[in-house]
Design goal:
The protein is built from eleven helices and eleven strands. By secondary structure, it is of the alpha/beta class. Helix 1 packs parallel to helix 3.
């Protein structure tokens, strides 16, 4: 483990090509206070230029909770429409740093993800879950909609009709239910330690070169971000040109050509 950086509420480490970010408030089920949101924004902004990264893994501390929504003890101080707009901007800005992070971000759901915690998971590119994990867009039980872009993300992931139903039902899904809906992409098998499952899931990705993963991330995220086709293709073009001309590409091509030569 190298490049360690630690905060009280958010733990960060760089493990070679893997950025690991942990919401670290397990005694309170990892709630998202304004300070946590600000630190998440800072972490992903700070590491966006790290050219060796291939993937980021985001999880909650402990085994019970990924993120149990907004920290109501902190957020109940937000009372005016102006303050509420500021809260929206803070959370959406933090999650946008994840959506726009240059390499894929995997939400490792080690436990409960509800409300703002479900939005945090939806802001990531891929969601994988422990067998006991649960996820729910339960905002309706507080008579509010998703505040940090989670409704739009949810519709991009599962489709608008399913997203509307999940929001209106305000149910909490278990991991297999979330998998069946496409909200979660993989669930750990019975008996496998979650850390081993996470590492096994990302292992094939670590064979990819950083510049190529950046192109993959952009191509997958452009639609979710609402980028018009023309603008998406222009960025695609630049990613392609950079990757094609990189020595990594010529090394791989030469390996194949050498095999084909008589």
């Amino acid at each position: 483990m190298q490049g360690n950086h630690s905060q009280d509420a958010v733990r960060v480490s760089v493990d070679g090509p893997v950025l690991r970010v942990t919401v670290n408030r397990p005694e309170k089920r990892n709630p998202l206070s304004r300070a946590v949101l600000a630190e998440l924004a800072a972490v992903f902004a700070r590491h966006a230029a790290d050219s060796v990264l291939v993937v980021a893994v985001l999880r909650g501390a402990g085994e019970k909770s990924f993120a149990a929504g907004g920290d109501l003890r902190d957020l109940e101080k937000v009372r005016t429409p102006e303050e509420a707009r500021g809260l929206f901007d803070l959370g959406n800005g933090a999650f946008d740093a994840i959506r726009r992070f240059p390499v894929p971000v995997v939400a490792a759901l080690n436990g409960l993800a509800v409300g703002g915690g479900a939005e945090l998971a939806a802001a990531c590119d891929v969601r994988i879950a422990a067998r006991h994990a649960r996820i729910g867009f339960v905002h309706g039980t507080l008579n509010i909609p998703p505040a940090w872009g989670g409704g739009t993300d949810l519709a991009a992931i599962v489709g608008s009709a399913k997203a509307l139903r999940l929001l209106a039902d305000a149910n909490i899904l278990d991991a297999p239910e979330a998998l069946a809906l496409g909200l979660v992409d993989a669930v750990a098998p019975e008996g496998q330690p979650f850390e081993a499952f996470v590492d096994g899931f990302i292992a094939p990705w670590l064979r990819q070169r950083p510049q190529v993963m950046r192109a993959f991330k952009w191509q997958a995220a452009a639609r979710k971000l609402g980028v018009p086709r023309g603008a998406a293709e222009e960025r695609d073009r630049e990613h392609f040109a950079a990757a094609w001309c990189h020595q990594d590409h010529w090394t791989a091509a030469e390996r194949i050509l050498t095999k084909e030569r008589p």
